[in-house]
Amino acid sequence: PVGGPTQIPERRYPDNRTPAGAGDPNDEIGFIQVRYKQPGAARSELIQQALANPADDRVSAQPPEAMRWAVAVAAFAQKLRGDPWMNADYGWDAILEQAQGARGDDPYGDRAEFVQLVRAAQTLPERREP
Question: 59, 21 in Cβ contact below 8 A?
Fold first, then answer.
């Protein structure tokens, strides 16, 4: 409740001013805390782990290719069904750009075929209801 005690400790990164991909001066790029309780146990256990940036490598703000591809495929499905939760400004061109930017190695042509499906779907009439 407002004004009541909190269970959340002080923020570990209070200012959040480190540029994306730079990590902090101690090479820490994140911190994970997981609290769990075994079935039947009376007390919970806490696991804490700092995530470090190895050596002098910079952290990429770009998701891996496989993740970008999965986002394009999921967006395609949402757009086809007229998903009401999809941002209205995320149109066919954005899906096409996402898919083309994540094609990568395509030995069987599956990803190229998907790009063609997106282009074909652009010509479909707009769906009004999911």
Answer: yes
